[in-house]
Specification:
Chain B: InterPro entries: Adaptor_Complx_Large_Subunit, AP2_complex_asu, ARM-like, ARM-type_fold, Clathrin/coatomer_adapt-like_N, Clathrin_a-adaptin_app_sub_C, Clathrin_a/b/g-adaptin_app_Ig, Clathrin_app_Ig-like_sf. The structure holds 2 protein chains of 2 kinds. By secondary structure, chain A is an alpha+beta fold. Chain A has 3 domains: 7-134, Beta-Lactamase, CATH 3.30.450; 179-287 and 411-428, Mu homology domain, subdomain B (Immunoglobulin-like); 292-380 and 387-399, Immunoglobulin-like, CATH 2.60.40. In chain A, 17% of the residues lie in helices and 41% in strands. Chain A contains 8 helices and 23 strands. Chain A has helices at residues 31-40, 78-96, 102-107, 109-119, 130-136, 158-163, 226-235, 259-265; strands spanning 7-12, 17-22, 50-53, 56-63, 66-72, 120-121, 124-125, 179-192, 198-212, 218-223, 249-253, 268-270, 275-284, 292-301, 305-314, 321-330, 335-342, 346-350, 355-364, 370-377, 392-399, 408-414, 422-436. In chain A, β1 and β2 (17-22) form a beta hairpin. Among the domains of chain B are: 184-308; 449-609, no CATH class; 748-865, Immunoglobulin-like, CATH 2.60.40.1230; 868-984, TATA-Binding Protein, CATH 3.30.310. In chain B, 54% of the residues lie in helices and 11% in strands. In chain B, α1 (7-18) packs parallel to α3, α22 (409-426) packs antiparallel against α23 and α25 crosses α26 (485-498). The chains are: A alpha+beta, B alpha+beta. Chains A and B meet through β17 of A and α2 of B.
Chain lengths: 438, 1025
């Protein structure tokens, strides 16, 4: 295991240290000043997450209004450090009840120190699983001081828990109603040229689960992905169904998934941890169903006028609809006056981001609203630099739609006691960076 | 006042102040800018109030550091508003947002002028302030008379006149012609009679600018300045508001003294006496007090007074008083004051006679070397460096050496350089010098530049009695456990050369020396290994009687490095191995290095360079600089044509070096030279060893690459042996003027010929400039780009490039800048169009000035006939009909060429191909003949196919027959002549590697007789290098 951190700092946006923990003494306590001087106060912030100043490397990440900075002086594993930060934030969130920001940190100093001691040792990351840690770091966030009932909770043997075969699940869980929730969340990244040809397109998806199951259940998940289906057809020696199969790239599983079984039988089978977790992640680069097509025409009429026409077409089923659609159409910095005509939604000019922002709250499938705007520009002193025409950006959420076409074919739950379970499956597609050049 | 009631503005400002972070602030600002844009774009127009409000907002945003690139029109238009609040905004925002080059300002000139000549004082002040801040040349032309009138007017209040003086200063700086010298001298004198100190201070600023340009015209002002100084110093009639912490107008005092420093001397005894009295008072009256502001003011006056005293060359008593004062300063604990004291002492050193007095403070200065503040340490170091002379050199250098081990890393390089220079300059004896430098290398090896140890080697080589001492000394150092690489280099060199002088001492047998050196081999880098190899070769040569075991050991090492990846090491290993088998011949080849010609120490030059860089531009410094730069010219001057090697330099005269050439008269110089060349020539007949010699010289060249020095010797030789003058042609382009004082690096003609065959490379190089060229050819068009690179830390000025194109080329050179900034490269594209075929060559007449050097070279440009050729393969079916259709002169010409340099057929084919003639094999049944084809492009002929047949005689390779056919008679003739020239004037280059295309020398416009075969050893050597 490589070293991931010599020290970790939590800073607010002004650069004040909220909390810090030094794991090794190879970095000085004042190194964070260097970070403040050389990174926060310059325009470097946000350009590169890894910077070297003096003999130290700084890895930093902004989460809401907090900067988390890791300082190392040796040759550390950067990816490991960032993964550590991400996991630690997830852990804190689960302790604080969802929010991770400056206030949450200020309210939970003691807890954070306790957790920081536990999750990293001499610069080496340790167990970051909230389920396990909650067993022995029982002090909960101040948000819910009365919800925990320490009296009727037996503190199980933590050591056994961590070292056992199923380290992620406690034994002896009992639920009245056995339920499984499964969400497939996909985000679409797209870069399209002004002519409508796709330059770059991929989907990153996650399978999120929430389990409220008694005992030690064994779950088996079947998707309509290629590997699984092929394997199945081989086993059952019958031709594959004519349905679409999806080829998943870069699949990563939660540690609970039995990989030997996956390798031999190509099935995703696992004993789930209790509560919420991310079962798998994947990426798809081919055969993506784009939910929206954008057809922009932007004409510059002379030096002071522009005409913008944007047509957005929804290409998913007519019964479905998208929520929270926002289309940001960039305009030059010297925009002075704008006037709009839209067939649905509302549009306005936002000078702070130099965009025309067109919002449509509910966007049904198979429709194509349009926006036409006239933009007047003010003349400037600077000699005419041609406008760079940044891409149009789009945000949306389409429930019950997957851009990859991925579907859950089955989710089987098997437990010794053989109880009945209720399975809930949801799909949602969101915009990642959905950009159309104009 | 103007802010009253602008609620929008105050809300905006409070919004900004309430922002938590930069990002929020930016969002708020961008929103506001959007709002302002919308308002300005509003068709209905804005009320003056709104306009004012938004322009204030713009200014506020601009002050926060955001880019505001619109709305200037609105700001400028506010200037012409009738009411004060709007006018004020207009002026303030215009002077903040715009600079003198903005076009919008032109719109305002008229309004500004109206305000200036108007009756309203407030408006006058606003206008004058704006012009004083951003007025440009146009303002200068149109407003200067009015401003002058205001300044001189007696009816104006001092408030306005003050501003008018400063405004005029700005206008004068923009355009010096606005102040008429004849008229203004009297008026200026008159202005100095002014009683109001405010007006006086402003006028004095104006006077400083005027006097710095032309002090003669303002003689009349001199006594008045003295009078003002006297008035201030005696504190007569100085109003309370102009005294600052009890000091009467320190600003005016400083400025008056600054003005006086621009006058070379003050002759009038009365004035002089008064002045000294005043200065005396200033020197006496200043002391260090608690109050910082008071200190600052009084020290400003004091240091200006010190500068002035230095300028005046006052009597010794006053000088010593100054030094005593400074001595007090450097003993103070306050770092700022100490810094100033040290700095001014360093300046005092420029004045003669004070050195002795300063020396009294030496102990104090040395303690300053240990100050925690680095800037003070630096000043102390500078001062020590400056005050060093023969008497205290030993102490100071030893002090520096001691300090070196504890000094800051950032300072070590400078420190060691300075110690090295001082040791060299003031060495009481040379062994001490060697000791010091070796100690330096030992203590601060990382910070020692190559120049330092090169210099030691030079001294040791030039001084016979020093050699055994140095050899013994370096051996002592090598015995230490950890040795720095630089030390290994010096020791390897010195032991290689002189270890045989120690052979009788114990522990110094060749074998032992070898083993000491060889121990270091695994630890050193690739730059040091060659030196070690040379040392081994020399040790081996000096071992008498030969030691079989040592020889085997060394040969094994050479063997090992024969396959080294580093070309330098490999070459040496191979050559030494081969040479060491030659036995007796080895003695000659590896003979002791000849003495070096005396050179100015490059260290001193380096130090001077860096001093010039950091110098500030005060009056006294300016003069000092001029002096040093003159000195540089004297010492730096390279002899014209390199006829005499560099003259010894005055700075080195303290070092006792038995000089070979310097003291002797001209004839003996020549003898000395030919002697030296004798040694060179001895090795000439064996080309590899000549190479080797250059090689050995290589690491020792202290200034400039070795080629330059050897070349100058070569030129000298060719002058001596007058009969061979023709060879000069190969070294210097025939058209080059002999007045050229700058020696080019490398052979210009060779560079030209190389460029005839390729499209990019260096056309010309000398110590100051390098001209590179890059060309692209497309049909009859060409695009050449000249890269003019300044190699120095000072700009090259009066740069001029003229193209003298021959009739057949149309050339257009883009603008060449007049100056090339230090270490910068300028690109000048050059368009070429070929009109008709011709062999004439375009010439670039290039000149520049560096310091006082004026260099002018005429360079041939490689836009030659073959650049417009395009090789084209032709099949037999195409070839023969063409060949037959072009029958007889003038379209088809045939000529038998004799005296061709014999070469095998493939080589000839290669040569032809390098001129872009495509060889078509198989067309001619006779294998001894070559057939080639190409297309020629020019504007008149367009694309024109040319067919060439060359018949050779296997029995006599010196003659051949060329037949050339094309559709254009001139083209046929020119191309035939071109090929003939290339074939005939081929030089005999015996060991030119086959891969490199042979270099044809000087292709002159007219066909020339075959040149004297250049077998002169000197030129051979030059070629090799």
């Amino acid at each position: 295991m490589p070293v991931a951190a010599s020290a970790i700092y939590f800073l607010n946006l002004r650069g004040d240290v909220l909390i810090n923990r030094l794991y090794r003494d190879d970095v000085g306590g004042n190194m964070v000043d260097a970070f403040r001087m050389h990174i926060m106060q310059t325009k470097e912030l946000g350009t590169c997450p890894v910077r070297q100043i003096g003999g130290c490397s700084f890895f930093y990440m902004r989460i809401s209004n907090v900067y988390i900075v890791i300082v190392v002086s040796s040759n550390a594993n950067v990816a490991c450090a960032f993964k550590f930060v991400v996991e630690a934030v997830a852990l804190f969130k689960s302790y604080f009840g969802g929010a991770f920001d400056e206030d949450a940190i200020r309210n939970n100093f003691v807890l954070i120190y306790e957790l920081l001691d536990e999750i990293m040792d001499f610069g080496y990351p340790q167990n970051l699983s909230p389920e396990i840690l909650k067993l022995y770091i029982t002090q909960e966030g101040v948000r819910s001081p009365f919800s925990s009932k320490p009296s009727d909770r037996s503190v199980p043997n933590a050591t056994l828990q961590v070292t056992g075969a199923v380290g992620w699940r406690r034994e002896g869980l009992v639920y009245k109603k056995n339920e499984v929730f499964l969400d497939i969340v996909e985000s679409v990244n797209l870069l399209m040229s002004s002519k409508g040809s796709v330059l770059r397109c991929d989907v990153t998806g996650k399978v999120l689960m929430k389990c409220f199951l008694s005992g030690m259940p064994d779950l088996k998940l079947g998707l309509n992905d290629k590997i699984g289906l092929e394997k199945e057809s081989q086993l059952k020696s019958r031709p594959t169904k004519s349905g679409k199969t999806i080829e998943l790239d870069d699949v990563t599983f939660h540690q609970c998934v039995n990989l030997t079984r996956f390798n031999s039988e190509k099935t995703v089978s696992f004993v789930p941890p209790d509560g919420e977790f991310e079962l798998m992640k994947y990426r798809i680069t081919e055969g993506v169903n784009l939910p929206f097509r954008v057809l922009p025409t932007i004409k510059e009429l002379g030096r002071t006028r522009m005409e913008v026409n944007v047509k957005v077409k929804s290409v998913f089923g007519a019964k479905m609809f998208a929520l929270g659609v926002v289309i940001k159409i960039p305009v030059p910095k010297q925009t002075a006056k704008t006037s709009f005509q839209v067939t649905s939604g509302r549009a306005k000019y936002n000078a702070a981001i130099d965009c025309l922002v067109w919002k449509i709250r509910k966007f049904p499938g198979q429709t194509e609203p349009t926006l036409s705007a006239e933009v007047e520009l003010i003349s400037t002193m600077a000699e005419k630099k041609s406008w760079t025409r940044p891409p149009i950006q789009m945000e949306f959420q389409v429930p019950m739609f997957t851009a990859s076409g991925l579907r859950v074919r089955f989710l089987k739950v098997w437990e010794k006691s053989g109880y009945n379970t209720v399975e809930w499956v949801r799909y949602i597609t969101k915009a990642g960076s959905y950009e159309i050049r104009c | 006042m103007a802010m009253h009631g602008m609620r929008g503005l105050s809300i905006f400002i409070s919004d900004i102040r309430n922002c938590q972070n930069k990002e929020q602030e930016r969002l708020r600002v961008d929103k506001e800018l959007g709002n302002v844009r919308t308002r300005f774009k509003n068709e209905k127009g804005l009320t003056p109030y709104e306009k004012k409000k938004y322009v204030w907002k713009m200014l506020y945003i601009y002050m926060l550091g955001y880019d505001v690139d619109f709305g200037h029109m609105e700001a400028v238009s506010l200037i012409s508003a009738p009411k004060y609040p709007e006018k004020q905004v207009g002026y303030v925002v215009t002077s903040c947002l715009l600079n003198e080059n903005h076009d919008f300002l032109r719109l305002a000139i008229n309004t500004v002028r109206n305000d200036i000549i108007g009756r309203n004082e407030t408006f006058q002040c606003l206008a004058l302030t704006m012009v004083g801040n951003i007025g440009g040349t146009e303002f200068a032309e149109s407003l200067a008379p009015d401003v002058q009138k205001l300044l001189l007017s007696s009816s104006c209040r001092p408030l306005v006149r003050k501003k008018a003086a400063l405004c005029l200063l700005r206008l004068y700086r923009k355009n010096p012609d606005v102040v008429n010298v004849d008229g203004w001298a009297d008026r200026m004198a008159q202005l100095l009679d002014e009683r109001d100190l405010g007006v006086l201070t402003s006028s004095m600023s104006l006077l400083v600018a005027l006097v710095s340009n032309n002090h003669e015209a303002y003689w009349t002002c001199l006594p008045k300045c003295v009078k003002i100084l006297e008035r201030l110093a005696r504190n007569q009639d100085v109003p309370q508001e102009y005294t600052y912490y009890g000091i009467p107008s320190p600003w005016l005092q400083v400025k008056s003294m600054r003005v006086l420093q621009y006058f070379p001397t003050i002759e009038d005894p009365n004035t002089r006496r008064t002045l000294f009295e005043v200065l005396q008072r200033m020197l006496m009256g200043t002391d260090v007090v608690k109050n910082v502001n008071k200190n600052n003011a009084s020290h400003a006056v004091l240091f200006e007074a010190l500068a002035f005293v230095m300028h005046l060359d006052a009597e010794k008593e006053m000088m010593s008083q100054c030094v005593a004062l400074l001595g007090k300063f450097i003993a103070v604990r306050e770092p700022n004051i100490r810094y100033l004291g040290l700095e001014n002492m360093t300046r005092m050193l420029m004045v003669t006679d004070v050195q002795e007095i300063i020396k009294r403070h030496q102990a104090q200065i040395i303690t300053s070397l240990k100050d925690p503040d680095i800037s003070i340490r630096r000043r102390a170091l500078d001062l020590l460096y400056g005050m060093c002379d023969v008497t205290n050199a030993k102490d100071i250098v030893e002090e520096l050496l001691q300090y070196l081990s504890s000094a800051d890393f950032t300072m070590r390089e400078e420190l060691s350089l300075k110690a090295a220079i001082l040791a060299e300059k003031f060495a009481p004896d040379l062994s001490w010098y060697v000791d010091v430098i070796l100690q330096l290398i030992d203590k601060a090896g990382d910070f020692i530049s190559n120049d330092v140890w090169f210099r030691v080697v030079q001294f040791v080589t030039n001084n016979d009695d020093l050699q055994p001492y140095a050899a013994a000394k370096v051996k002592e150092y090598l015995d230490k456990p950890a040795v720095h690489e630089t030390m290994v280099k010096v020791s390897a060199y010195i032991l290689g050369e002189y270890s045989h002088l120690l052979a009788r001492r114990t522990g110094c047998s060749p074998k032992e020396i070898f083993s000491i050196l060889h121990e270091k081999l695994p630890t050193v880098s690739t730059t040091t290994i060659p030196i070690l190899l040379s040392a081994y070769a020399k040790i081996l040569m000096h071992t008498q009687p030969p030691d079989q075991e040592l020889q085997n050991q060394i040969w094994a090492i050479f063997n090992k490095y024969e396959s080294c990846i580093d070309a330098e090491i490999q070459q040496r290993a191979v050559e030494y191995f081969a040479l060491s088998r030659k036995g007796a011949a080895l003695m000659d080849i590896l003979a002791e290095m000849p003495k070096f010609p005396e050179r100015q120490s490059s260290l001193i030059k380096k130090a001077e360079d860096s001093e010039v860089d950091t110098a500030e531009q005060s009056a006294i410094k300016l003069r000092a600089q001029q002096q040093t730069s003159n000195a540089l010219v004297v010492t730096d001057q390279r002899p014209a044509n390199g006829a005499t090697p560099s003259v010894p330099v005055s700075q080195l005269s303290l070092v006792k070096v038995p000089s070979m050439i310097s003291a002797e008269d001209h004839t003996s110089t020549n003898q000395a030279l030919s002697e030296e060349n004798g040694t060179l020539r001895k090795v000439d007949p064996q080309p590899p060893s000549a190479d080797l010699l250059g090689d050995l010289l290589g690491p020792l060249a202290i200034e400039g690459p070795p080629g330059a020095t050897v070349r100058s010797e070569h030129n000298a030789v060719s002058r001596l042996e007058g009969g061979l003058d023709a060879v000069d042609g190969s070294a210097i382009v025939p058209v080059e003027e002999q007045t050229n004082t700058v020696q080019p690096i490398g052979n210009i003609a060779e560079r030209f010929h190389a460029l005839c065959l390729k499209d990019s490379g260096v056309l010309y190089e000398d110590p100051y400039i390098q001209i590179g060229i890059k060309a692209e050819w497309r049909a009859h068009h060409g695009c050449l780009v000249l890269f003019l690179g300044n190699k120095n830390t000072a700009p090259l000025i009066s740069v001029q490039a003229l193209i003298l194109p021959p009739a057949h080329l149309k050339m257009e050179l883009s603008l060449v800048p007049d100056t090339i900034p230090p270490r910068a490269q300028v690109q000048c594209p050059l368009e070429v169009v070929n009109l008709w075929p011709s062999r004439d060559v375009a010439v670039l007449d290039f000149s520049y000035k560096f310091g006082t050097y004026m260099a002018n070279v005429k360079l041939r440009l490689p836009a030659v006939l073959n650049k417009f050729l395009q090789p084209i393969p032709v099949s037999a079916e195409e070839f023969f009909p063409q060949w037959r259709s072009l029958s007889g002169p003038p379209l088809k010409l045939q000529e038998v060429v004799r005296g061709v340099r014999p070469m095998p057929l493939p080589e000839m084919a290669n040569l032809l191909y390098s001129f872009w003639l495509m060889i078509c094999p198989g067309l001619d049944p006779n294998p001894n003949n070559l057939v080639a084809s190409t297309t020629f492009y020019s504007e008149n002929t367009r694309a024109m196919l040319c067919l060439i047949r060359i018949e050779t005689d296997p029995a006599d390779r010196t003659q051949l027959r060329i037949t050339l056919a094309s559709g254009d008679p001139t083209l046929t003739f020119e191309l035939k002549e071109f090929i003939k020239e290339q074939m005939v004037s081929m030089p005999t280059a015996p060991q030119a590697p086959a891969a490199a295309p042979p270099v044809p020398p000087a292709a002159q416009p007219t066909p020339q007789a075959p040149q004297i075969p250049a077998n002169d050893p000197a030129s051979l050597l030059a070629d090799l290098l």
